[in-house]
Amino acid sequence: MTSNGHDHADGPDMNAQVQGGTQASEAGQEQRYVDVRLFTGEQIYMPIWEGRTSAPLEVQLGCSWHRCKFCDFANDERYVFSLPEIAAKAQMLIPYAQDKHRVFLLGENPLSLPMDMLRQIFEIIAYFMPWVDEIAMYARFDDVLAKTEEELEELADAGLREVHIGLESGAQEILDFMCKGIKIDDALEACRRLHKLDIDFSFTMIAGLGGTELTHLHAPGSIAFLNAAQPKRIWVTGLLLWPNTPLFKIAQEGGFHQLTFHQRLIETRNMVAGLELDDCEFVDSTVLGDCTVRGHFPEQKAEVLAAMNQLLEKPGYDHVPPIPIPGMTERG
Ligand code: SF4
């Protein structure tokens, strides 16, 4: 996932603690519940598409990669909750999942978890919320490739319906500069495997990620990648230059210059103009810092482009986005 590419939702008041007691699961293990909170932080981060439709089950904190230069999550220590903790969270989630048929596994890339653990997490969900028939989560491309096709098929059969991946940009040079740890050919191979198994995949993209130095590469690279990959959904957010990141230091030293709001929109408009997508929901939730443009492609592509061109006429957006204050400014 991406630190710029996540929605946040204030957790419902579900943080009562579960203490003591045991519960025998279908998996055959006895779960002993100790102090567990449903959500660790005050906010939870989910893709914009999942926020209102899925029950969020926290399984992991931090990310297995944590090297992306722009990412404020990269500083977070990785922690994987134990199966008893996850079972306790699942039990606490029941009242809030009654009207949901989908669970979203919270954490920066739960698909990186070992297969045995994922199996048991899926069993926990089936035990406590048997009406749930879809599971979604964040993933990296290399998490997909690290699973065999048989393992992915097993997860799909057990309910894995969608993975949300932080693509950020389809330009290899930008990904390399940001230390994203993705090679375009590998990413396309991951998409091919997901398509083959009918596991939907969605991308977050970050407008302005290349700065003034590499912006010219973003639209051409992203057009080529997205048209080849054919994702189900694309969510564009704008770069936030978090002060606690390597990118911020690079910018301070003059090696990176942010795009203005106007330049970011030009970059995204140019990308959209070249997209040839068969069936894709598109949303840019940070247009000029205060607008959202969305549409379904291909039939609403012309409307999305027209809206972006119209917004480009608005005066007063020739400044770079402000530096966010960690803990005080909403992310994403
Ligand atoms: S993969 Fe990169 S952007 Fe996503 S959470 Fe990890 S460090 Fe952050």
UniProtKB/TrEMBL annotation:
Radical SAM core domain boundaries: 49-278
A Pfam family matched in the record: Radical_SAM
Entry annotated with the keyword S-adenosyl-L-methionine: yes
Segments of this protein annotated with the region Disordered: 1-28
Superkingdom to which the source organism belongs: Bacteria
Coiled coil: none
UniProt biased composition (Polar residues): 16-28
Cofactor(s) annotated in UniProt: [4Fe-4S] cluster
GO function term, MF aspect, one: iron-sulfur cluster binding
InterPro entries membership: Aldolase_TIM, BchE-like, Elp3/MiaA/NifB-like_rSAM, rSAM, rSAM_sf
Keyword S-adenosyl-L-methionine on entry: yes
PANTHER family in UniProt: ANAEROBIC MAGNESIUM-PROTOPORPHYRIN IX MONOMETHYL ESTER CYCLASE-RELATED, RADICAL SAM SUPERFAMILY PROTEIN
Name assigned to this protein: Fe-S oxidoreductase
Species per Swiss-Prot/TrEMBL record: Slackia heliotrinireducens (strain ATCC 29202 / DSM 20476 / NCTC 11029 / RHS 1)
